[in-house]
Amino acid sequence: MAQQSTDYVTLVSSDGFEFKLQRSAATVSGAIKRMLDPISNFTEAQTNTCTFENINGVVLEKVCEYLYYNEKHKNNKDVPDMDIPPELCLELLMAADFLDGESCTAVCLISNADTGLV
Amino acid sequence: MSNRRPGNANRIRGPQSALTDFLAANNISAQQIRDDYNRRRQQAQQQAGADDEDAQPAAAQEDEEEAADDVPAPPPTTTNTRKRKRKDVEDEAIAKVKKGKEVDKKKQADKKKQKGKKKPKGSDDDSDDEYDDNLARDMYKKAPPAPGQLENCEICSKRFTVTPYTKTGPEGGLVCTPCGKELAAEAGPSKPKSKKAAGRPRRRKEESNKMDNLSILGAKTLQQMCIEKVADHHQDVEEFGDLPQTVLERLGEIFTKKRIMDPRTMKLFLRPDHDSIAIHDCAKLETEDYHTIFAVSPHVEKVVLRNTCQFKDETMEYMIEKGTKITYLQLYAANLISDAMWHKLFQQRGEKLETLKLQWLDASFEDEAVEEMVVHCPNLQRLKLKLCRRIGAPAIDSISRLTKLEHLSLRISQEVPCERLVNLIGNVGRNLRTLSLEHFPDADDTLLEAIHAECRNLTKFRLTENDYCTDAGFAALFADWANLPLLSADFSSTRDIDNNNPDGPEQAVGLADQGLAALMQHSGTKLRHLDIASCRHISHAAFTSVFDGRKQYPALGSINLSFCGNVDTVVVAGILKSCPALKKVIAFGCFNIEDVVVPRGVVLIGVPKARDFMIEQVGMEWVGLDAALGAMVEAVGAA
């Protein structure tokens, strides 16, 4: 029952919450992108639904919020930080690492410090 | 007050009421209160009396005897009692007069103090004590109710002693200390919050982020935001759980950046199953914290500890004992380690060491230690010795025997003759993938020739702060070099230094026209990072011919042109055209760059924008490369 890839995809949390959001926003995450890639032929790609056994509803909601926030500010500069409740931070960090946000702009603190101007 | 219980308790006689009982149980006695009241009243009267006397200070000051005589003596009963009574009265009078004198003096001192603003202190004979008294008195005067008096608290109605620090309640009355504290606590937190909301620091932060390449365009990654948030709330974190090691390392870097890496937070990063520990600023760690590191994680292979001020001999001994698997060791500013302990490290743990990075060692680590290292660490692949003050040319000779070296970074403070460096390259150059030679002022073209002849695998090459190597030497190095294209090239500050002749000699010294052309021809296809800061003899013609818009440098992402005086708007436009992958251009001190329109995805740092003095300019989404170039052509044409 292979479906066409739709504009909207569904993300399901471990405790059963479903979040429907735009494909373009969701695929910012490397992991979600690969899961939904039609070429990979995963179940997720066929059903346009990703189930995350290790992310609960609260965290996934925040993730979805971020995905849209990121989409919204894609071309802006000086973007204000999203509000993240401190108690969610570590869980969200785990989820973010798992989902692999696109192009982690790694700042090389060390290299910056070492290549000081003369 | 101290004698309140035993003396007074005896005076209460007869049946006691329930109230008296209760008061007594609570260490309060009615007698005491009454006595206190009387004493206070008396005092107030005395004070008033003293002030009256003060009105005629001359009279009061005249003579104690006189004052005593004036007191009417009661009729004598017996000589003894009379004498005693007279004595009492005398004493009292003397006390009164003394008090009057004191008050008088204080008044005088007060006046002096007022004058003292003009007059230097100590011009008169009054002592410091009196000044202190004055100060205290001034404070007394300012407090509205007389301190020392009792007052009922406005909030809890408890009786308390008024002090100069007593707070005013919401109704305008006085409140006791506990209630005052509560009031302060309620009012306290709201103030700093409102201060934080100010706009300026925020903007500064944003600019700083741009300089760090943090946010060129679009939002930060979720990881980045979470990590910063965690750092903000570091004091609430109890443990990090099983965060992946890569994330933990990033967290560690941010903790260091925010200067919150202390003994408590450091422990959050320790896990027995980790094979690496990286603390980039150990300034707040104590000796025992280092012990904790190696006790908790004995399996570490990679140890990065920078600014290890408290890393002592005993710590090193403990590390040698526990850290049997260490292959990667980076210690910066570990100045408390003795030479003998360095020797011991190499002797006992040298065999496994593959990477050693030492920096900022002033007190120890001599040439012999380097020799010891070479003897006992045959497997070293990566070596960095920078700013180790005590090593010199003999160390270079020792390093020449490390045949497995692949990455070598040196910055030696002492003088090193060029032939030693040539010898070093001759011995280890063949395998080198990274070569960084900073501040070797005596190196000349023979070194470049040696590198040309020996090195085949270099990807990162740095030769900075030198004024001997000539442009021709650089050109010869890159011409037909059998080495693969470089990925990173840094030739900053290779130039002639002669204040009388700023343009340099006829035959250019340092990387100049020919050298730059040869470098870009050799490495242009792969080069990612180019640093030619302060290569001031590169001409405008050389820049425009190298970056002419037709030649393409597909990988070049960052370029530093600072203090290259010949760079102008045309050169920058050419660079933008020739480097499609460009992300960052640093151009401090290039005063000919004007009116650059920075295209999307590029940051230009260092060129002041006349309008609002912003140092960096970030490309806008709506400015494509062509549009930017078009705009610049117009601007240049107009000028």
Automatic annotation (TrEMBL), chain A:
One of its GO terms (cellular component) is nucleus. GO terms for biological process: ubiquitin-dependent protein catabolic process. InterPro entries: ELC1, SKP1-like, SKP1/BTB/POZ_sf, Skp1_comp_POZ. Residues 8-71 form the SKP1 component POZ domain. Keywords: Nucleus. It is found in: Nucleus. It comes from the Eukaryota. Its main location: nucleus. It holds the Pfam family Skp1_POZ. Belongs to the SKP1 family. Essential component of the SCF (SKP1-CUL1-F-box protein) E3 ubiquitin ligase complexes, which mediate the ubiquitination and subsequent proteasomal degradation of target proteins. Controls sulfur metabolite repression, probably by mediating the inactivation or degradation of the metR transcription factor. PANTHER family: ELONGIN-C (PTHR20648). This is Elongin-C. It comes from Coniosporium apollinis (strain CBS 100218) (Rock-inhabiting black yeast).
UniProtKB/TrEMBL annotation, chain B:
Gene3D superfamilies: Ribonuclease Inhibitor. The lineage of its organism: Eukaryota, Fungi, Dikarya, Ascomycota, Pezizomycotina. PANTHER family: PARTNER OF PAIRED, ISOFORM B-RELATED (PTHR13318), RNI-LIKE PROTEIN (PTHR13318:SF234). Residues 33-150, 184-211 are annotated as: Disordered. Residues 147-184 form the DNA repair protein rhp7 treble clef domain. Residues 50-69 have a biased composition (Acidic residues). One of its GO terms (cellular component) is SCF ubiquitin ligase complex. Residues 87-107 have a biased composition (Basic and acidic residues). Residues 108-120, 192-203 have a biased composition (Basic residues). SMART domains: LRR_CC (SM00367). This is DNA repair protein rhp7 treble clef domain-containing protein. GO terms for biological process: SCF-dependent proteasomal ubiquitin-dependent protein catabolic process. SUPFAM superfamilies: RNI-like.
